[in-house]
Model the fold of this input.
Amino acid sequence: MNEQIKEKILALLDQHRIMTLATLRPDGWPQATTVGYVNEGLTLYFLCGLESQKAANLARDDRVSITIDHDTSNLMSIAGLSMAAHAQPVTDRAEAERILHRLPLKYPERVALPMPMPSPEEIRIFRVTPTVISVLDYSKGFGHTDLVTC
Done:
């Protein structure tokens, strides 16, 4: 992967904190959901309920599609990421605790958390490993995309 593209991807990941995550339902239809995330390099992490539809979908098929972007009033300033990835549950307690500690740090404007962070046993944490990333940047031309394989 080109270093300039990687820096652009990391900058976009660091600028945002929510993503749209699409999983596959049992009937084959995609299910898109908005979730918060943290990243360590190109690896993303998100939390969901133990009995959530996302967790059930991912137990059957770990493939996901992700978008990360923001709203803009200028069509030619659209920028964002689209990823094809695999989402695996985090089973290592140290990794889970590290992610649970990092998630609130994505919200530096908070005065106090509205509720305590859950423990690793109370939620499911998924590690998302991208396989293909599309970097969308309209400032380089309408619909311009750089496609990279991880």
Remarks:
- Helices lie at 3-15, 53-60, 93-102.
- Strands lie at 18-24, 30-36, 38-40, 43-49, 63-69, 79-89, 123-137, 145-149.
- The first strand starts at residue 18 and ends at 24.
